[in-house]
Amino acid sequence: MHGKSRHAHSGLHWPALVERFQGARNSAIQLCAQTAYLGIMLNFIEHGTRSDLPGLLIAHGLYGSARNWGVIAKRLSDTRKIIAVDMRNHGASPWVSSHTYPEMAADLAEVLAVQDGPFDVLGHSMGGKAAMTLALQHPDLVGRLIVADIAPVPYEHSQIRYVDALKSVDLSGLEKRSDAAERMAPLIDDPALIPFFLQSLDVAAGRWRLNLDALGAAMPDIMGFPQIDTSFERPALFLTGGQSDYVQPEHRPEIKRLFPKARFVKLPGAGHWLHAEEPRAFEATVRAWLDRAG
Known about the structure:
This protein has 294 residues and is α/β, with parallel strands linked by helices. Helices cover 41% and strands 13% of the residues. The chain has 13 helices and nine strands. The longest helix is centred in the first third of the chain and has 22 residues. It starts with a helix and ends with a helix.
């Protein structure tokens, strides 16, 4: 009698219960299929709100963070939703031992899979390689692609000297960022990079928001690029600095092989850090291309 009473109180007969369970199970299976990219969920900062235009995900470069892109993201968010991520082992995103481009692409896929509506993707340097890998391996998640000053090729140079330099900075007893800047000056070969690195310093905790051990160990992967035999058939913009040597004419055949609809634009006065050196020109170029690229 007690069992019958509970069943009657629920207001559902057994066939209806089975139907509800099957519907919930199918929804769960569909959700898992949508987000099963085997990446980690990254920390990200949202700017603006969803509009009729596709959103834009921004992936920063090595030693960077979502906060580096705050000004440009806010300006672009006047017409579309912008998401700037902290890549793995950077900022407030999880620290993990491995740091390959297929893994970084899977991380970006996890972020995009839970968003509402279509997204374009912009990546700079390391973030550009991750964005290219995402577009090649998960093209259904990328509307259009913008790659800032990097090519889908391995590079012979290394950034390991900055890992070693940051590890060498004495972070004890810091009261303000200028204290750290003074200690960094003898260790960093380019003074212009010191303010950039300082954005990843947690002064109060006396620690870097960078997993320097993992990044140092993964430097060959970061400087390389995976062998991928597919191509991305949607529009792609390769935006380079006129004073940078990262993207060379001999790289264009490989770019066109992987991205047949690639277009090339150069910012004459900018180097590799083109978004920081020429922020207004960078923003205007990105905005104009997004507004007209079909």
